[in-house]
Amino acid sequence: MARTDLTRSAPEIGEIERRRWMFRHPAVIRITHWVNAVCLLVLLMSGLQIFNAHPALYWGNVSTFDTPLMAMSSTEDEPPKGVTTVFGRGFETTGWLGSSTGSNGEPADRGFPAWATLPSDQDLTGGRSWHFFFAWAFVLNGLAYLLYGLVSGQLRFRVIPSRDQLRHFGASVREHLTLRFPQGDEAKRYNVIQKLTYLVVLFVLLPVQVLAGLAMSPAMNAAFPFLLTLFDGRQSARTVHFVVAALLVLFVVVHVALVLLSGFWNNMRGMLTGWFVIERKVEPAGATEQPRA
Amino acid sequence: MSRLPSRRALLTGASATAAAAMLGGCDRLGNAAWFQRTLKTGEDANLFVQRLLLTERSLAPEYTAADLSPWFKPNGTEDPPDKDYKALAKGKFAKYHLEVGGLVEAPFRLSLAELRTLPARTQITRHDCVEGWSAIGQWTGVPLADLLTRAKLKPEARYVVFHCADTMDQGNPLEGGGDGAETDAAAPAGNANPAMTKQSGDGESRTDSGGQQASEESAVSGGAPVRYYESIDLVDAFHPQTILAYDLNGKALPVSNGAPLRLRVERNLGYKQAKYVMRIEVVEGFAHLGEGKGGYWEDQGYAWYAGI
User: Fold this and answer.
1) Residue B301 is nearest to which of A125, A220, A235, comparing CB atoms?
2) Is it the case that residue B182 has pLDDT exceeding 70?
């Protein structure tokens, strides 16, 4: 990999900060990252549109209608109230879930609100078209990433924690919680929590999400009956698909928050151009060259 | 550090604006014909890949009597408003005849009693609505393959069309008409039941707009009532689990579930399972029927292939 060292002194209080450029993200990783980001956003919003066609979740093969695990509905009041029921307990969620303002300004009976769905108006067939197209894009993009990652060794370097990283797991957690981010050589690679998170997202959440999606297809059930066994039924698969989508949202929220907190422009430059700056902290007194990694 | 909040505020503001612009942009994009065609390639890929993965004999999972749904949720039309149909129903369908014709050597008509004397298949299968819910029912009926074999398909036969008794678009809502707050208000009164759901008492069902563009077209195409119809290709038509069912859970099919005869084409979503089937027409293509998309819901924008 091309790597240049541009050292520059920027004296700050009590320490000397050295900046070093590092080519961190190869083009394939950058492209697949942004394609993936667009796919996940469209899949989420069109998925909520599809969910809105029957905003209730069940376990097993069939819908019990009267006893959903979770359901969103609206009341007969004027104006209607939105109610979300989870495990039999009702919560008022007016304006967000069950009942919210539609594009015409009137209250609408809908699971998720218009701003969260694609298309924004109630349009199941439109949502399905978006969802299937971007599902294919997501899968092909993901396969390209995996293939490149395996062949180039990037995947192993990025997501498999080293022994010493696993040994210092506790310290890494403490660093994370106090928002102290690794510097110097440690910043060149992902830390153990990042690696384990990416490992779980890449090899657990995303594959489970695809399989749960396929398990909802009656034709796929005929081709691969084990899909139903795997998820304990079609309605369970739909519930798993929903829950995993929520976990992926959680991942993205934390991911974006940490991108913002650990140096937004540096991270963005890294994922757009590939170039990332490593901050090195050197004690001012008696500090000489640190060994280069 | 004092710079941070303003930068953060700037970023938040910028992303909120970008998000709003993107949402509007996506809706406009989704209405553009070229983009709709692009999106539809996803659904074309579904058909292509699933036809590769499934053999003609791959069976939909079958269940046991213990798995039966206590209530088989009816959907779409639950009580056809048509006079002819009401008269047939009043006479317990004694005067009902199923017509089989089109591109066949030997068209024929069969009464319900005659259909019941033919070799039957009983299967307990899961019904998956495009909206997302599922129900399990036991269906008894005549394998469609037997009827098609008896009628002897002509070489150019490619699709089987099911013409149904229930009128969908009549100019005014039939009943209930769904929640409609968003979807119907803007749409002209042409699409009587824009959803496959009528609002049920528990308020769990939701409607979908089913494509307002198509409903405008059908309103323009004017006066003639549009009846439900569906089409399947010969792969599905000759599938061993494709039957014309007259019994549900061991009893005569109720009107709400499609009496006297409905299609069960397992491995497909609910909108393919045409109810109130009156006539079977074997065709080479379906461009001349309805809006030319191969079915009532297909004409409203739904994919012709309903395997997913």
Assistant:
1) A125
2) no
CB–CB contact A65 B204 (8 Å): yes
| DSSP code for B111 | E
Residue (of B113, B82, B81) closest to B97 by Cα position: B113
Please report the pLDDT score of residue A179 as a whole number.
84
What is the interface pTM, i.e. ipTM, of the complex? 0.86
Cα-based angle A186, A191, A193 (whole degrees, multiple of 5): 160
Is A53 close to B132, i.e. CB distance below 8 A?
yes
Q: Do A118 and B26 touch (CB under 8 A)?
A: yes
* Cβ–Cβ < 8 Å for A76, A89: no
Please tell me the distance from the alpha carbon of residue B297 to that of residue B234, in angstroms, as a whole number. 20
Using the beta-carbon criterion (under 8 Å), do B209 and A123 form an inter-chain contact? yes
Q: Please list the residues that pair with A87 across neighbouring strands.
A: none
Per-residue model confidence as pLDDT tens digits over B243-271: 999 999 999 999 999 999 999 999 999 99
- pTM for the full predicted model: 0.86
CB-side exposure of A97: number of CA atoms within 13 Å? 17
Residue A58 with chain B: CB contacts under 8 Å? 133
| Residue A115, pLDDT above cutoff 60 | yes
**Chain B nearest-CA residue for A225:** B61
Indicate the pLDDT class of residue A264, thresholds 50, 70 and 90. very high
Asked if B303 lies within 8 A of A68 by C-beta distance, the reply is no
The shortest C-alpha distance from A116 to chain B (Å) reads: 9
Question: B96 pLDDT band (50/70/90 cuts)?
Answer: very high
Contact partners, residue A174, CB within 8 Å, separation at least 6: none
- Per the listing, tokens 């983009």 go with B35
For residues B264 and B270, give the distance between their C-alpha atoms in angstroms, rounded to a whole number.
Answer: 9
- A56 neighbourhood in chain B, CB within 8 Å: 133, 204
**What average pLDDT does chain A have?**
90
Contact A119 B182 (CB under 8 A): no
